[in-house]
Design a protein that fits this description.
6-stranded mixed sheet, single chain, about 300 residues, 4-stranded mixed sheet, about 15% strand, alpha+beta
Length: about 300
Amino acid sequence: MKVKKSSEIIAVLICAVFIVMNFSATASADLGPKASVRIQFVNMGDELCYGTLLSKYESTGPASVWNGDDESARHNENEKYSYADFDFATWKAFAEHEDKDGYYFLQEGWTVSETKEIAWTYYPPSSFKILLYYPETKTFVESGIYERYAFDTYYTVDMDGVNIGSVEYNEELSTDERIDAYRSYNYRQEILSLVARIIITIIIEMAVALIFGFRKKKQFIVLASVNAATQIILNVLLNVINYNSGQLAFTVNYILFEIIVFTIEAVLYCKLLKKVSERPKRNWYYVLYSFVANAVSFGAGFIVARILPGIF
């Protein structure tokens, strides 16, 4: 009867995990930080250069194609958009640019020669092309089509060998030059951070186990096995959520998943630790250990995140 009850508790908790994941994805989409696309340029010269992302669709969030009304033209000579990077001549060049694939200029732009980056951090287009403009030679340089692949999408463009030239604008120069971007999301760092989080958590919870008097070999095997299994599942899920939904969803789920992990571990400890202990404790003792161990590792996670932000 007890085995059946424990199985039912675990089954309910597993269902809760999927509900939480679905809820957090929806909540983060509405309330949390918005997705971003960042294009970094390396080996770029100092010649004045502006850039934008052309979109497959006519609008995304507040950004949209020009509707023909002068008051909605987003350049810094328009008082409503005095903060814009583009002056009227540059804005007009982008607005009149005809993309062969039918992608749209949504009036968002950056002075790339200063920042060496295009950082679209609020409702970026999901399918886009990179378009650079050199006003001194009236030259456009364009990329192929790229997609957002993560909540925070990173691409890098190596400008080495891209010949802009210092001649007057002509159709051949404007359309033949191409740039290529490659994904530059730091997967290696994410994997190392994942492994580090798991190891740190297990070490902390094993230290708490010593304080609670769990020192026998069989007890340590049970504790280490349960911890390793729950922490691997927990951290892999959190990494997937962070990749797809961002840091806010990661934090929300970190709290909720820790509660779920505590409950699962408490149930397993009440069953398994009793079997391998010479003097079994009452259930409340194993539940208390699970609570304290998870609370300590949870708090330590936020402390480590401040000291080593790359790990959490």
